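[Structure tokenization] protein backbone as discrete codes
[Encoding] learned vocabulary of local backbone shapes
[Protein] chain in single-letter code, fold in tokens
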Amino acid sequence: MFLSEGIRGYDLHAKTVCLTFDDGPGETMSAGDPGPRTLELAQFLHDRNITATFFMIGEFVEQHRGIVDEVSKLGHLIGNHTYDHTNLGGQSRAFVVKQITQTDQLLRDVPTFRRYFRPPQGELSESLVTELNSTEETKSYVGPILWAIPTRENDRKTADWRYWEGRKSAKACAEAYIADIEAAGHGIILMHDGLHEKPKRSGMYPLEMATLVVNWLQKNGYEFASLDSVVRAQRSP
């Protein structure tokens, strides 16, 4: 069911994080060029024995179905991030339900697909939460899946898309995330393996940034939780 407060992973133990990635799938074919790296990123995490969750956009799923299947084969979870990344603030129930169900239909036969929902920009009003819980097509979903890192204080400042927008380096972005991880101590981490906005999408370095962050996390004794375990903890009495 949908919860008005959302799920951020605050119940995780200290130095335990859950990696999530938004706005894919996508893949830049030229080695070394900026842009989405969904499959390479999924393989890197698999090689490190980390199960991440990729919140995918329906229209990109249609374009890159092969990548979706390969990410699933690597054991990563796949969640719903709407069909076209429209901000849901102020939208009608019918509009929101269609955004969710269009993508659900594209993903429902993927073995590691979960009915976990992350709204674009984390926007989902209490009234919509109530309506989605009473709608047959969406009441089996869990969400909204939000995040603890970047922290609420630094959400827009630290977010990786801000760095890609400003054409800043993967190293600078990773350093900002590491600072926020140290400040928060635990929780769900939000990153992006793609971006819906094409100008930002062409300037991102998600694989390089995530590699730096994961290297730091493992060097400093952090553990990795799957989103399944986060959801179970949140829903336990």
Remarks:
- The chain has one domain: 2-235.
- The first helix runs from residue 38 to 47.
